[in-house]
Amino acid sequence: MVSTNPTTAQAPYTRVKDFLKAGLGQGRWAPGEQMPSESELVAQFAVSRMTVGRAIRELQAEGLVTRVQGVGTFAAHLSRVSSTLTIRDLHEEITARGHTHCAQVVLARAEAAPPALASQMGLRVGETVFHTLIVHFENGVPLQCEDRYVNPVCAPAYLHADFTRITPTQYLLEVAPLWEAQYSIEAGPPTAQEAKLLDIDVHDACLIVVRRTVNRDVPITLARLVHPGARYRIDGQFKP
Fold it and tell me: Which end of the chain is more exposed for a tag (fewer CB within 10 A), N or C?
């Protein structure tokens, strides 16, 4: 029986999430096997259904479980778990290597959303969207060109943040925690503007990550992150 001492410093949803994650790591539920229901977890941890739902949603976003509406939660198959990728904030990633991070804000303004962007951001055509273009440097060398759009509803003070002192990722995680993230990763050439900002040739191969985050079905941000292929790699870890 898991302790549910209410005096613990852990957030309630974290206790539920840690319990389920530990069980998955120990093989308590085989891939495809049904896990405890929300009602069972509510009773076991003496928390609300909303708290349990948040824990399960986060595990689903990490690729560790699957949910079938009206049926329940199931342990994800290993092929799905192994494809899970965690991308850390770039500032943390650089400082963890003992290097220095700095950023140059090229653009920070409010714009009218064109049709394609409005659709992605859950806005009406012509509604205001925040737009930033930032170059991140590692030890003075350009490492990432970050072209980001932000929904003003989720982060109304976004353009007032000092992005030479805090990254957009750090800021948005504080003011608009995400519940879901979708991303695509591809190798491709930079645009002419990106090549100039990164000090590379327009024909150089780049690692391009496009990431969209959502909170309670409301889009938060859409970002295009371009990294010179010769200067960047993504590392991950998988534990069955």
Answer: N
pLDDT in tens, 59-81: 887 778 888 878 889 887 654 44
Structurally, how many domains does the chain consist of?
Answer: 2
Structural tokens at position 185: 């990763």
Q: Which of 215, 191, 214 is nearest to 203 (CA)?
A: 191
Per the CB < 8 A criterion, the answer to whether 73 and 67 are in contact is yes
Q: φ and ψ at 10, to 5 degrees?
A: -70, 145
The Cα 216–Cα 219 span in angstroms is 8
Task: Please list, residue by residue across 167-188, b when 16 or more beta carbons sit within 10 angstroms of its beta carbon and e when fewer do.
Answer: bbbebbeeebebbbeeeeeeee
Name the one residue in this structure whose structure tokens are 């609300």: 48
In three-state secondary structure terms, 229 is: coil
Q: Please tell me whether residues 193 and 168 are part of one structural domain.
A: yes
- Tell me which residue range forms the domain holding 173: 90-228
**Which 8-state DSSP code applies to residue 34?**
B
Contact between 226 and 162 under an 8 Å Cβ cutoff? The reply is no
pTM for the structure as a whole: 0.65
The residues that bridge with 221 in the sheet, in sequence order, are 150, 213
